[in-house]
Design a protein that fits this description.
Length: 262
């Protein structure tokens, strides 16, 4: 285990023991994350070129571009996140734990230039223990592929790791309980860009009550990382006319990822 990860795992353990130390960002102030996710700047990893972008027949056809516009890609490196998953895997910090089939930790590359953060697992995700594997997940996969990437070149996580009953919005206490692991994931994944998916994710990360329609399409910062909010794929399934705007957001992301590393 690397020194970094050992430190991180120790810090997460301490956090769990202290249980809830810090303040809650969903209620307008920030959790003290330094003990969990570290204080250092987030550095982009070196990258290697992505091979051929995979054109998507459906997602790329109209609103979402050709799927051949490759972006600055992502390096895959062996999983430092495994230790974090192990520590967090048995979490019972909130009542969502009681209703879960599986905790949905998140998956993908680490480090990765691009990280997607959704809201929380749905039924399929709960059953399979993987993020975005239902219908919304299929659309997210198409969105990623239209960007010239693939799911295994990005990291996909959620605000909460256990399914809220009936797919209701996660409650503030549940978000607070889950925050340390998300921050630790960001620290380990070291993304250059985060894309938040949907209202809950954007409003939570930005500690904002502004509607997603006004948050999307422009750059924000979270934990020292550029953040682009866009619509949730589940919403896009219900409102396909919004795909065009989502694609515009993703194009801004692709542009950002093409910029040379700082
Ligand atoms: N919706 C989310 O926000 N996350 C998932 O993992 C699946 C659906």
């Amino acid at each position: 285990m690397s020194e970094d990860v050992r430190e991180l795992v120790g810090a997460v353990r301490t956090y769990l023991q202290v249980h809830g130390r810090g303040r809650h960002f969903a209620t307008g102030s920030w959790v003290d994350v330094s003990a969990v996710a570290g204080d250092g700047p987030v550095h982009a990893p070196e990258t290697t070129p992505v091979a051929e972008a995979v054109p998507d027949p459906e997602f790329g056809r109209e609103d979402f571009g050709s799927g051949t516009e490759s972006v600055a890609p992502t390096r895959i490196e062996a999983g430092d996140l495994d230790q974090l998953r192990e520590v967090w895997g048995q979490c019972t910090r909130c009542s969502l734990a009681g209703g879960r089939t599986n905790l949905v930790f998140g998956e993908g590359a680490a480090p990765a230039d691009l990280m997607f953060i959704g809201e929380g697992p749905g039924e399929q995700e709960d059953l399979q223990g993987r993020p975005f594997v239902g219908r919304a997940g299929e659309l997210l996969t198409k969105m990623i592929e239209a960007m010239g990437l693939s799911r295994d070149l990005v990291f996909i996580a959620n605000i909460v790791k256990c399914r809220p009953p009936g797919n209701r919005d996660p409650e503030p206490g549940e978000v607070t309980a889950c925050l340390p692991v998300l921050l630790a994931q960001i620290r380990l994944v070291r993304p250059r860009v985060i894309v938040s998916l949907g209202r809950i994710s954007a409003q939570t990360l930005l500690s904002s009550g502004t509607p997603i329609s006004r948050l999307r399409g422009r750059w924000h910062r979270f934990e020292g990382v550029d953040l682009m909010p866009t619509f949730h794929p589940a919403y896009l399934l219900r409102s396909p006319e919004k795909k065009k705007e989502a694609w515009q957001d993703l194009q801004l992301v692709m542009e950002k990822l093409r910029e040379p590393h700082a």
